[in-house]
Amino acid sequence: MSAVLGVPPAAVRHWIRAGLLHVAESAGSVEWFDFEQLVIGRHLARLLSRGLSLREIDAKLTDLVPGGARAAADAAGRILVDGRRLSIDDGGRLLSAGGQMQFTFYTAPLAAGQDRAREPVVDLPAALPLKAPTMVPVSLDEIPDGRPPAADMIEILDLADDLEAAGEFVEAAEALRAVLQAQGPTPRVMFMLAELLYRAGDLTAARERYYAVIELDPDHLQARSSLGCVLAELGEHDLALAALEGVLRQEPAYADAHWHIAGVLSETGLPAEAAHHLRRFLSLAPESPWATLARDRLEQISGSPTS
After folding, report:
1. What is the DSSP letter of 286?
2. What are the Cα distances from residue 171, in Å, to 48, 152, 197?
3. Sign of the C-alpha dihedral, residues 223, 228, 229, 234?
């Protein structure tokens, strides 16, 4: 989902946690999404691409769309962005937070799915003052001793997602470590830290965190799959194959594991075995972002075009 939308994995995790995206099917720690969620995700990714942080999007959607996360997700396709300001197209009327009607002039017609260039907005007077954004800044130095309330933990996780999405990997890792110190190790947060360390390029540290996730949750397929990738990058190919084959024993339909195994087999000089897993990958995920590359690799192995 992250690759299809072109957003950091932290953004997808954040939107799931906030209730803006819903998992259609899951097996262990592996989650799948249907087309409806992909469409919603694309609208959310559009907001993120305009420079808004994840927590800014949350706060602005809360102000703009009453009815909670589900209503906000359903309305995402009707939201327009003007700088850092969001408005919603309500049947031809343009409304801002609090239901304020706006006068606006477009250089292109209102059309669903198009990015519109806009002139500055003029608000009609509001009957009531607008609610202030609900974001609360969190300082990691101010976390109290003992176990902080769950709301504080969610806020820190949101902060970590924002930092990761902005490329601030060191600061994001410190936020996650603060959560682990406060509430103890959990597979979910440990996995987030492992993924973050991997994105930061610290493969050895990421490998140890993935091992820790599996020790806490032996059925965590994503951790096993990611561990296999890290081991392969570290040149430990036999261990990488063992980790990835373990994933397929638990979930044979996990397409990404076939993709990664094919990569390891190709690197170790076993093209025929790699081709088998590439074909299996294409049968499971023909619309994957890597499907074209998989077909190209099959063509290189077999010497003939792959349909």
Report:
1. T
2. 20, 17, 11
3. positive
Q: Out of 44-48, 61-65, 71-75, 87-91, which region has the weakest mean confidence (pLDDT)?
A: 87-91
User: 92's torsion region: left (phi>0), alpha (psi -120 to 50) or beta?
Assistant: left
Report residue 240's pLDDT band, with 50, 70 and 90 as the boundaries: very high
301: confidence class by pLDDT, cuts 50, 70, 90? confident
Please determine, for residue 132, whether its predicted confidence score (pLDDT) is greater than 50: no
Please state, in angstroms and rounded to a whole number, the distance separating the CA atoms of residues 205 and 196: 10
In angstroms, the CA 228 to CA 257 distance is 9
| Distance between CA atoms of residues 98 and 127, nearest Å | 9
Q: Tell me if 258 sits within 8 A of 274, measured CB to CB.
A: no
DSSP string, 45-62: HHHHHTT--HHHHHHHHH
DSSP 116-176: --BPPPEEPPPSSPPPPP------GGGPPSS---HHHHHHHHHHHHHHHHTT-HHHHHHHH
Q: Are 228 and 244 in contact (CB under 8 A)?
A: yes
Is the pLDDT score of 164 beyond 50?
yes
* 0.70 exceeded by pTM: no
| Distance in angstroms (rounded) separating the CA atoms of residues 151 and 158 | 11
**Higher pLDDT, residue 153 or 133:** 153
Domain range annotation of the chain: 2-123
Cα–Cα dist 183/102, whole Å: 46
Taking the C-alpha atoms of residue 228 and residue 251, their distance in angstroms, rounded to an integer, is: 15
Could you give phi then psi for residue 173, rounded to 5 degrees? Answer: -65, -40
- Residue 207: closest CA among 236, 230, 177: 230
The DSSP letter of residue 76 is G
For 44-48, 74-78, 186-190, 287-291, which range has the lowest pLDDT when averaged over its residues?
74-78
